[in-house]
Design goal:
By secondary structure, this protein is an alpha+beta fold. The protein folds into 2 domains: about 1-135, Immunoglobulin-like (Sandwich); about 140-178. It has 3 helices and 7 strands, in the order αβαββββββα. It has helices spanning about 1-30, 35-40, 140-170, and strands at about 30-35, 50-55, 60-65, 85-95, 100, 110-120, 125-135. Strands 4-3-6-7 form a 4-stranded antiparallel sheet. Strands 1-2-5 form a 3-stranded antiparallel sheet. The longest helix is centred in the last third of the chain and has 32 residues, at about 140-170. The protein is elongated. The model is unreliable at about 10-15 and about 15-30 (pLDDT under 50).
Length: about 180
């Protein structure tokens, strides 16, 4: 019984130590993305400057990995071969707690960005995972709604014309008498 109790205590201690270490690493690598610029970005049209603010690192570098949104069966995008692929695998320099890069996001959706942050000496400070949400181009949404509305109106008009012509010609159902 004592062996089980000491093994359970040891496992709980190791679990707690790992959780504290991962929480400390996340706090040391706190990063913020400037969302004001990205809120109005249109996919495949605008090239915004993605600005990153690092709270704990003033100078150093960050290795960036950006992955495109995953494929969605119900709402595919304009470029299906881009969905779910890695787009950026690069390193940017951190100066005065800030880093920036320009990128034209090819499709709408939620991009996953992973940052491996290094200080001036090249020592790993931590890893941060961020999401960047790019909305659909409002003009494309308006054009799609307009196109579908025109198709529906055309279909209703054609149905009304053909049914009126059919009644006028007497092509309705004929009742069989036995």
């Amino acid at each position: 019984m004592k062996k089980w109790l000491s093994a359970a205590f040891l496992a709980l201690f190791v679990f707690g130590a790992v959780m504290l270490a991962s929480a400390a690493a996340k706090d040391a690598a706190a990063v913020e993305v400037n969302g004001n610029v990205l809120a109005s970005v249109r996919p495949d049209l605008d090239t915004p400057v993605v600005e990153l603010s690092f709270q704990e690192v003033t100078n150093g570098s960050a290795h960036i990995r950006l992955n495109s949104p995953e494929a969605d069966f119900y709402s595919p995008t304009d470029f299906p071969w881009v969905e779910g692929t890695p787009l950026i695998d690069s390193t940017v320099t951190i100066k005065d707690g800030r880093a920036a890069f320009e990128y034209m996001f090819p499709i709408r959706g939620e991009y996953a960005m992973t940052l491996d942050i290094l200080d001036e000496a090249g020592q790993a400070v931590g890893t941060q995972e961020l999401t960047i949400n790019i909305h659909e181009n409002p003009n494309e949404v308006r054009n799609a709604v307009l196109f579908i509305s025109l198709l529906a109106a055309f279909g209703l008009l054609c149905g009304w014309i053909f049914s009126k012509r059919r009644r006028r010609l007497g092509c309705g159902l004929v009742e069989l008498q036995v």
